[in-house]
Amino acid sequence: MIGSQANYVHGQSWMCPLPDTDLNYRDCVDRWVRDRFAEAGPRTWDDLVRSLPGVDPTEVLDSLRRHNLSACVEFDQRKDVSCPRVMEDGRPQACGVASLPTPHPLDYCWWFDADTINVIVSSVRQFSPLKSHVVLLGAPTLFDALTKGTDTRRFSLIDSDPLVVGRFRCGLSGSVVLADVLHQEVDLEPAELIVADPPWYPLETQAFLWTARQVCTPGSSVLVSVPPEGTRPGVTAELDRLVGWASTLGLEVDDYLRGVVSYVSPLFEQNAFLAASVPPPQAAWRRGDLIRFRCVGSCTGERPKATSFNRWHERVFDDVRIRVRDNGPSREWRAPTLSTLAHSDVLPTVSRRDSRRDLVDVWTCGNRVYRCRGTEILLLILDAMAFDDGDTVERVERCIGRPLTPDEALQVDGTEERLRGIIEAESAEVSNWRERHARVDVVTS
Q1: Do residues 83 and 133 lie in contact, with contact meaning Cβ atoms separated by under 8 Å?
Q2: Cα–Cα dist 142/130, whole Å
Q3: Last residue of a domain, one of 305, 336, 366
Q4: What angle (nearest 5°) sits at the alpha carbon of residue 377, between those of residues 372 and 380?
Q5: Which residues of the chain, if any, have pLDDT below 70?
């Protein structure tokens, strides 16, 4: 089992008690950080966080402070990471992530970076014959790269984001299906290879693996990305349980590759670091492991049961995405004003373990979060802004069936003004993020 093996990241053996509790986890992080300094290892902030097995930079900074090591790390690296990677023939080749929608924190969407795409493209060629069917569960950047090349395989992308699905124009080499595998079954032709990139939580990983198994044939391979042991307390035990559960699906571990996948840091994560006063790493720091399963037997396990989920309405302003919680239909007046949930309005974490997440009614792609009693009225304001079809106050009055009081009209105007400020700020942030972090340049042929 995974937990009984020595753990390796980039060839480094991390001999540490399994971090199954918060205290053990902190002790492990401290030991890993101390070991890096004992080895005279990397001294820049980027190199330090990338050398650890998936430890969040917030945890790394806390460890440096506990051991008075912050002064030993170069934080101000002034590195330009916006330049495309140049291939051996001197020509940069880029997949079209510029056209992909800005990732939203509610989707737990991290894009594979260029190095990871190239690694998995090689695996696709190794583990699926020519003219075979390859299914991708998530991983839009990988799908984009594969369908841009001259590959003779057929590729199917399953994604739960309507904007992602809407951005792809597929021809003979690819097809895209809109589906949430946690709550929907997917009807696809059998595939020789399935690549799954689920959110790094047990239920989601099981749902992705279950869906992958439904399109397997005997001998099919399944590549699934999983969190490394430094991600959070208890991850090693989670992965042991996952491998045991996968065996009930007739899936057997063929290989376990540590630290081979890495991700573009999305805008919402960059903003969370800034809100937490943590220097955002300039290079891809989030690393993951890759398990390769092989279909060797029948499926006797049951489909994982998804918990109930909240419904969100989305409004899009160019590259800025705003989601509003569905609190039920109402034609009554409720104040649409936005109430602060976090300092500077940005949630300083992307972890599900933050209790404030359950209080959020309005959530932006830049990780700004707010309470709002009148979410239905707020949606009317957003619609008026999006369609620019007249007076916002009049739109609200038509909906609730009466004139607004002067105070209510002021609240509508004030909320609209605040929303415009949020959109303007995030539009600039998205533009800067795409230039500095969202370049994904890959070999496509």
Answers
A1: no
A2: 18
A3: 305
A4: 125
A5: 1-20, 41-42, 77-98, 169-173, 308, 389, 439-445
Q: What is the layout of strands, in order, in the sheet containing 320-325? A: 312-317, 320-325, 362-364, 369-371, 339-340
| Distance between CA atoms of residues 142 and 224, nearest Å | 13
Do 110 and 254 lie in one domain? The reply is yes
Nearest-angstrom CA–CA distance, 326 and 175: 31
Structure tokens at 154: 């057929």
Residues 209 and 65 in one domain: no
Q: Are residues 244 and 279 in the same domain?
A: yes
Buried b (16+ CB within 10 A) or exposed e, 411-432: bbeebbebbeebbeebbebbee
**337 and 396, same domain (yes or no):** yes
Token look-up 């002034």 returns: 78
| Residue among 354, 358, 360 nearest 341 (CA) | 360
DSSP-derived 3-state class of residue 275: helix
- Summarize pLDDT for 10-36 with one digit per residue, the tens: 334 344 555 667 778 999 999 999 998
In a domain, 83, yes or no: no
pTM score, whole prediction = 0.88
Q: In what order do the strands lie in the sheet with 154-159?
A: 111-112, 251-264, 287-295, 216-226, 191-196, 133-137, 154-159, 174-178
196 in the same domain as 238: yes
